[in-house]
Structure formats: structure tokens, C-alpha cells
Design goal:
909 residues; alpha/beta; Rhopdopsin 7-helix transmembrane proteins; Heat Shock Protein 90; 8-stranded mixed beta sheet; 5-stranded mixed beta sheet; 27 helices; 17% strand; disordered N terminus; disordered C terminus
């Protein structure tokens, strides 16, 4: 507080020093009772101040020879309280002055305009006009000149007459002095003043432009926006009360009301933006409630300026200046506090604030003083302008350096992710071939039992490796927030048991004992994904083995309840420098070859399943605690839909010959997939990329096109689009397209379907699944397969309404716990279909209906599955009314379903 008092004392002392200096600047000779004596050979302009003759409610004849008034008034000053007239600002009258200068000399006058309407005469000749003065508000028209006019020279002595009327401002009369000197002296003074003013404007405009350009380049940085707009607002305000360079392109006379609004609004905007700039730079030092109060007051003032006439809102200047000074003091104190805590930026701004406060205090003290109309705040803000510019430049430089480092890290991470993505794709391609070949060998009845066993080992190893590849892709989606959890029933007890068995040899190699502390827990069901749970537990136990040390023990315990809690404890202690960043990416310690991704990915997987993973460490060792939600109405495993249909030999034998073009850039995938399609009825030709596929289709148009999504030369998406274009322009028969990809995200599926594919399958594709999709497409292509959908609106309800027995579904008792959640998911899917129809998103409807068909059919909801299939096929071409009616029927059917549970054999036993 002592330093604050010193600061305020210094500020007031500076104001007291500057105030006399401002008031004593070049005081000219004073007029006495309407007569002003000027010396010979003036070398600088002289303000025509003092006692002018004054006549109230009379426009004096400008051709007077002797002083035509008996009353006198101080100039410059408002006439609001002059003796001889009613108090107040409104009215009209004349000012006269006799200027005695040496005979033979010639003087010109700089005819500064008054705050409202005025007209100036010299020796009976009108030399300047600002609007049109009149005896009433209806006859008076206030205006401002776009520049200060300089009259021609007149021979001495001079007789000046000024007619003034005021009905538009709080302070009327002769408020701004005129200046007299030889014309060349006035011209030189004006040129110097314009040069100074232009330099000030250029500083504001250039600084503001640079700040705004920086904001355009970096839109997330809002401080340059506020600072740039502040500079522009100050430039407008400075020009309005200065040389009015911005008005030069406009007509010579500007309406006073428009000019006043521009001046006041720019002033209010500058104060608001000034406060926002400092708040952005010092958010903790400047209270938000103070900012809100001040902005509210300024907003109300701006509203008054827009709505009220100038005669009313011009009264805002006194409270406005007082608020500006108060806010300036508050900001200076805030900056002083920050500077005391060692803030360099605060010291820089404090120096600029000193100039602003001194200028605002001077303006407040001189607002209605009988002296030339000066505004020191523009110079104060000009000095202040440098301080936030320096602070912003310092911070932006630091931000740019940090962003450059961050960009480098992001580019490296993106490169790593691209390499990993490519690696995943490249790994999945041969894996698909291995799994497909293993399945074909497994189905070969000529293999001996030991060979069948080896093929089974090969299949399980391939599937495990495929799961690991898919998991790495899942981790990437978890990082980016795009992972879609597919919850199922997971017995965490079984997962832990399998992990302990799998890591037993690893623990023995490290001479570590694995202790299972919860043998009484028979089952602990959670709602999650089994692969994710296995990966988390295996990671925690493996890390605990490595951290425990030789001849030590790792203890694993499990507790069931509303939340299933798994703890893994080892006697080792996490180093203090690592403990605080234990779950951060790339943080590792005490392990050679560690990547720092294990615990990071484990917590990602836990949170993806609405769980949490935490670590506690100390002298007693380290405990990692995994918490997962217990099973409550979980969903059935989505894998059930994959076995919805098993192909039968009967439909294959009845199928006519079909030409199939198989396109994949991996030769093993082409070999394995072609073996999945029996011949007859399928005749399979292959191509290695999309370009070769278009050439092959030019020679022979196939019934089926099976192709990979990502291929060189021409990918699957472009190839499908080319095929659909050929069908539309050259009347080719419709080719049924099945696109396959190692990408299992919905975005890839949506792109494939939008390009024109009929189905999208995720690799590896089993023989059963591929033939089931072909059977679906064959059924859909039969005459009348889509007839229901292309009848008038309401046809689905009339001709395809469910029967009473369709409303009753019988489910095995083993699904009793999970079926309600499954049914709710299907209802939500139907709601999403309704939204897609209302928004006209046909491809989304098609995708949702296709997904619902498989799930509903797998659970025995045959009418709902059929309705979903009809919606899927009708999505591209049926009217929105028909689709809306079909979705409505599906939603009502799902709402009316009645469920019975039949006991299973195991339950009966």
C-alpha cells in the first residue's frame, strides 16, 4: 500500500506540473472590451482570446464600423452562464472583435469551427461557414467542416463578426479560439500540425494493422484482435478531434450529428478495447467483474449515443472522463501489484499507463476551461501504444517459438502415426492371407489330426497378432477421441487368470512370484471389451514383474461390487521424478528399452471403457488400481451378427454362373479370396490395382466386383465411382460391388457406401461371411425384392405391417440380462434413422439400416430385420415420405415388442 500511495502521489504531482505548463502555453495578447492589440510582424499564430463583444439573440450586421455591442463575453468559453442571457446552452447570438494591427500589414484568420452552427465575417465579408446558424432549432443546421479553413489576407485593422447558434450540444457559444497571423505563417503552422497528426494516425493504423494481420494468421489469439481494434478506434477518435484527415474524401460540410456520433462511439470503443486488451494480457490481475461493470456502462453509453440526440448524450463526457480516470487508476494499481511480484510485462505497461492517466486527468481538468480546446488523451494513448505492443510482441514471440517446437513435435508424431498406420495396413494384408489360407487348410478333410492341430495353432497365432494390430489402431483412435466402444460381457476374473498363466514363464525368468490374493472371487463381470481388458491387465502385471526385482512377489487382487476393482502391487517404488508423470506419454524409468507407452496406453484403454487407472507409490511399494464399471444391462457381443446367415449348398447349386473380378494389390489375398468362391458357379478373374481393374472390366463386365479400398495407381473408391459412371453413361448392367479393407472404422465404411459400393467388409473376411453377403445381394436382386418400398406412402404399414406373433419374441434365458440393453440400442438406432430421414441423409440411413439388419436378425427379430433391409435398399431412391413411414413402423414395432425368456438346457439341469 505504501508503494501504491507513492505511485498515486507521483501521478498527481505530474498532473500538477503539466497543468500549469499546458495552461501557460504561448498565452497571446488578451482582448479587452472587444478590442485586441497585436504587435507588428507576427512570426507565429496568435489566438484571438479575451473579451469579445457579445449580443444575445441578435445576428449583428457584419459591416459595423464601431463596436456594435455593449456586453462582453470571455472567449473561448461556453455561453451557458454568461451574464445578460438566460442560463443554459440553447440559443443564438453574435460575437464581435476589433483587431488593431499596424497599418499596411495583412493578416489571415484560421477559422476554427465551433461545436454547432457558426458563420464568420471579416471586414463585412463572409469567410467561413459551419452549417447555418438560425434563431431556432428548426432554422439552425449544425455542421463541421472537413478541414480547418484559412481565410485570405485582409488589410489591418480587422473587424471580426461571428454568428453562432446552438441547439445541439451541452455547451454552446464561442468555445474554440480563432488564430490570426500572416497567411504563410498560418500555412506553415497548419502543415506542421498536419504532419504531426498524420504521424500519430500512421502509428495507430500501422500498429493496429499489424495486430489484426497477426490475428487473421492466428485466430485463436484474441489479444491482438482487441489491441488492433483499439488502435483503429483511437485513430478515428484522434482524427475526429484533430485534423479530420479521414473526412477529406467526403463533402466539405459534414452533418454535426453524424460527426458527433463517430467521435463519441470511437471514444467509447477505444476505452472498452483498451480494458479488454489489458484484461487479456493480465487475466489474473484484472478482476473479471470490474471488466463486466465497465463494459456494461460503456455499452449503455454507446446505446445512448445511437438513440439520443447530441444535445443529450454530450453530457456523457464528464462522467465518461471520470470513469476513464477511475479505471485507469485501477489498472495502474493492478499493474503495480504485478510489477511488485517481478512481472516485467507489468512494468512496461505501468510506464505507458502513467502517460494515459496523466493525459486523462488533464483532459478532465481542462474540459470546460477558458483555454484552447485541446485533447491530451490522444498523446497519452500514443505513448501508451508502445507498451502493450512490446508486451504482445514478447508474448507472441514466445508463443511462436513454443508453437514452432510444438509443430515440430506434431509433425514427428504425425509422421510416426503415418508410419504406424501404413505398417498396420501392410501387416494386416499378409495376415489376412495367412488366416485365409489356414482356414482353407483347416477345411481340407485330407489333413491328418496332427496337421489339423498345427493349422489350429497357426490360426490362433494369426488371430492373436491381428488383435494386436487392431489394438494399436484402437489406441490411436482413443488418443484422437474417435474410438467407438463395442461393449460386451467380460469376466475380468477369467481375464486375470489367463494373464497370470500367460506371464508365468516371464515371471519365473525374472525370479518373481505371482500371488493371486482373491481366489474366492468366482466371477467379476464388467461392461467392456475383452481385448482391452486383457491388454490392460497384462501390461500392469508385466510392468510389476519388471519393477519388483529378483526374489520378490507381485500380488494381484480383485474385488467385485458396483465397481469392479483390480489391484496389482509390487514392492518396488516409482522414482520421485517419474511419479508425477507416471501415466504421461514416453515417460519411462529403470527399464532398458522401455518406450513409456505401456502405462499411457493402459490408462487410455481404461478410460475408453468408462473406467480409471491410478497409481500409488511409497516406501511400502507401488500399487496400480484399475476400476471398471460392473455389468448392468450390458449389450450382447456384436460378433453375434456376423453369424446371422450360414450359406447353404442348395442356394449355391441353384445360382447361375457369375463372373467375379477380384482386385487387390496383395497376391496372397487374391489367391486366398479366390479360393473362397467355389467354381461353379463363380468364375473369378483377378487384377492387382484399380487401373488394371478398369481395363479388365472394359473387356468383360463382371456380375460382382470384389476390391480392396487402398491400392496403388487407382484405389477402390475411385474404381467404384468409375464403374457406376460407366453404368450410367454406357448402359452397362449393374455390377454388385463388395469393398474390403483392413480399416474397421465407420468413416471408411461410409466412404465406401457413398462411392457406390453395395457392401463393406472388414478384413480378414471369412468364407462364410463373404458367401453370406453374396447371398444377400442375390436375394435383393430378385424381381419384387424391393417392391414394398416403391408403393405410395403408407404401403409399408398396409402391406408389411407386423402380425400379432411378430410382436412376441422368445429369447433364451441366458440373454435375459443383456437383452434389454440390446433392445434399447436398436431403438436408439431407429431414432437415428428417423433423424437421417428428416435431414435427407440417405447414405447414413442406408448404413444404419444395414447395421440394424444383421443385429436384429441374429436375435430372432425377423420382422424388424426385414423392415431394416427394406429401408436399406430403398434409401437411395424412395421418397422421403415413404422412408419416414417405414422408419415409423419400425420404431413402433420395437416399442410394442413383448419378450418371453425360455430356459436353456443348462438352466433346466
Amino acid at each position: 500500500m505504501r508503494r501504491t500511495s507513492r505511485f498515486v502521489t507521483c501521478l498527481l504531482g505530474l498532473a500538477l506540473v503539466l497543468l500549469p505548463a499546458a495552461g501557460a502555453q504561448a498565452r497571446p495578447p488578451q482582448a479587452v472590451q472587444g478590442v485586441l492589440e497585436l504587435p507588428a510582424k507576427l512570426q507565429r499564430p496568435v489566438a484571438l482570446e479575451g473579451q469579445w463583444g457579445f449580443a444575445w439573440e441578435r445576428f449583428v450586421d457584419p459591416d459595423w464600423e464601431r463596436l456594435p455591442t455593449g456586453g462582453f463575453a470571455p472567449v473561448p468559453s461556453s455561453w451557458n452562464g454568461i451574464a445578460g442571457k438566460p442560463s443554459g446552452q440553447d440559443g443564438w447570438g453574435s460575437y464581435v472583435l476589433e483587431v488593431n494591427c499596424p497599418a499596411g500589414e495583412y493578416l489571415a484568420v484560421e477559422a476554427t469551427g465551433q461545436r454547432t452552427a457558426s458563420r464568420l465575417f471579416i471586414n463585412g465579408i463572409e469567410v467561413a461557414r459551419h452549417g447555418r446558424p438560425g434563431p431556432s432549432a428548426l432554422e439552425s443546421w449544425a455542421a463541421v467542416h472537413d478541414r480547418v479553413p484559412v481565410t485570405r489576407e485582409f488589410a489591418c485593422p480587422l473587424r471580426l463578426t461571428l454568428h453562432v447558434s446552438n441547439f445541439d450540444h451541452r455547451a454552446g457559444g464561442f468555445v474554440r479560439p480563432l488564430w490570426a497571423a500572416p497567411a504563410d505563417v498560418l500555412d506553415r503552422a497548419r502543415e506542421a500540425r498536419i504532419a504531426q497528426h498524420a504521424a500519430l494516425l500512421a502509428a495507430y493504423l500501422l500498429t493496429g494493422a499489424v495486430a489484426l494481420i497477426f490475428f487473421v494468421a492466428r485466430r485463436r489469439e484474441r489479444i491482438p484482435l482487441a489491441f488492433g481494434l483499439f488502435c483503429l478506434a483511437m485513430a478515428v477518435y484522434t482524427d475526429m478531434i484533430g485534423e479530420r484527415l479521414f473526412l477529406r474524401p467526403l463533402p466539405a460540410q459534414i452533418a454535426w450529428s453524424a460527426y458527433m456520433r463517430a467521435e463519441y462511439l470511437s471514444w467509447l470503443a477505444a476505452m472498452a478495447l483498451f480494458l479488454l486488451t489489458l484484461r487479456g494480457l493480465f487475466p489474473t490481475e484484472i478482476a473479471l467483474r470490474v471488466v463486466r461493470v465497465v463494459l456494461t456502462l460503456l455499452g449503455l453509453a454507446a446505446g445512448a449515443v445511437l438513440v439520443l440526440p447530441p444535445a443529450v448524450y454530450s453530457h456523457l463526457v464528464l462522467p465518461g472522463q471520470a470513469i476513464a480516470v477511475a479505471v485507469g487508476v485501477y489498472l495502474a494499481v493492478a499493474m503495480l501489484r504485478s510489477a511488485r511480484q517481478g512481472g516485467t510485462d507489468a512494468r512496461v505497461l505501468l510506464a505507458g499507463m502513467l502517460a494515459v492517466l496523466a493525459a486523462q486527468a488533464l483532459d478532465l481538468l481542462l474540459i470546460d476551461s477558458p483555454s484552447p480546446d485541446r485533447k491530451f488523451v490522444t498523446f497519452g494513448f500514443a505513448l501508451f501504444l508502445l507498451s502493450p505492443a512490446v508486451v504482445i510482441a514478447r508474448r507472441m514471440s514466445a508463443a511462436l517459438n513454443a508453437e514452432e517446437r510444438s509443430r515440430t513435435l506434431e509433425e514427428n508424431a504425425r509422421l510416426r502415426e503415418d508410419v504406424e498406420r501404413i505398417s498396420r495396413h501392410d501387416l494386416k494384408t499378409p495376415l489376412n492371407s495367412i488366416l485365409g489360407a489356414a482356414r482353407l487348410l483347416h477345411d481340407d478333410g485330407r489333413l491328418a489330426p496332427d496337421q489339423q492341430e498345427l493349422v489350429g495353432v497357426l490360426q490362433r497365432a494369426g488371430l492373436r497378432m491381428l488383435e494386436m494390430v487392431n489394438l494399436s489402431l484402437g489406441l490411436f483412435r482413443m488418443e484422437t477421441g474417435s474410438y467407438e466402444l463395442r461393449p460386451q460381457v467380460v469376466n475380468l476374473r477369467e481375464v486375470v487368470s489367463r494373464v497370470l498363466v500367460d506371464l508365468h514363464a516371464y515371471a519365473e525368468a525374472h525370479r518373481v512370484a505371482l500371488h493371486w490374493a482373491s481366489p474366492e472371487v468366482a466371477a467379476a463381470h464388467v461392461r467392456g471389451e475383452e481385448l482391452l481388458c486383457y491388454s490392460i491387465v497384462a501390461n500392469l502385471v508385466k510392468n510389476a514383474i519388471e519393477a519388483a526385482g529378483a526374489d520378490r512377489q507381485v500380488t494381484v487382487s480383485l474385488r467385485d461390487g458396483d465397481r469392479v476393482v483390480l489391484t496389482v502391487q509390487n514392492p518396488g517404488e516409482v522414482p520421485p521424478e517419474i511419479a508425477g508423470r507416471f501415466f504421461d506419454k514416453y515417460v519411462t524409468g529403470r527399464k532398458s528399452g522401455g518406450t513409456g507407452l505401456g502405462t499411457y496406453s493402459a490408462r487410455l484403454m481404461a478410460r475408453a471403457q468408462q473406467g480409471e487407472l491410478r497409481m500409488d507409490t511409497g516406501y511400502g511399494g507401488t500399487t496400480l488400481t484399475l476400476t471398471l464399471p460392473a455389468l448392468k444391462g450390458a449389450l450382447p457381443a456384436p460378433a453375434a451378427a456376423a453369424a446371422a446367415e450360414n450359406p447353404q449348398d442348395d442356394w449355391l447349386r441353384a445360382l447361375p454362373a457369375r463372373d467375379v473380378l477380384l482386385v487387390d494389390d496383395d497376391e496372397f489375398t487374391r489367391l486366398v479370396t479366390s479360393r473362397m468362391l467355389p467354381s461353379p458357379p463363380f468364375h473369378v478373374t483377378t487384377a492387382s490395382n484399380g487401373h488394371a481393374a478398369t481395363e479388365a472390366m472394359g473387356r468383360r463386365w463382371p456380375h460382382y466386383l470384389l476390391l480392396d479400398m487402398e491400392m496403388p495407381l487407382r484405389g477402390g473408391i475411385d474404381t467404384v465411382r468409375w464403374a457406376r459412371e460407366q453404368e450410367a453413361t454406357r448402359q452397362r448392367p449393374r455390377c454388385r460391388v463388395i469393398m474390403m479393407s483392413g480399416n474397421d472404422d465407420e468413416g471408411s465404411a461410409a466412404r465406401a457406401l457413398q462411392s457406390g459400393a453395395d457392401r463393406f467388409l472388414v478384413k480378414p473376411v471369412s468364407r462364410e461371411r463373404l458367401l453370406a453377403v453374396v447371398r444377400e445381394l442375390e436375394a435383393a436382386s430378385r424381381p419384387g425384392a424391393q417392391a414394398d418400398l416403391f408403393q405410395p406412402a403408407g404401403a409399408l404399414e398396409t402391406h408389411g405391417a407386423p402380425r400379432a406373433d411378430d410382436e412376441q419374441v422368445v429369447i433364451d434365458a441366458e440373454w435375459a440380462e443383456v437383452f434389454p440393453g440390446f433392445l434399447q440400442l436398436q431403438r436408439e438406432s431407429a431414432e437415428a434413422m428417423a433423424g437421417a430421414v428428416s435431414d435427407g441423409r440417405r447414405e447414413e440411413l442406408r448404413f444404419l439400416a444395414h447395421r440394424a439388419y444383421g443385429a436384429l436378425g441374429a436375435m430372432g427379430l425377423h420382422w424388424a430385420a426385414r423392415q431394416s433391409r427394406i429401408l436399406e435398399y430403398g434409401a437411395p431412391g424412395a421418397s422421403l415420405d415413404e422412408l419416414e413411414e417405414g422408419v415409423r413402423a419400425l420404431r413402433e414395432h420395437l416399442d410394442r415388442l413383448r419378450v418371453e425368456y425360455r430356459p436353456t438346457d443348462s438352466a433346466q439341469r
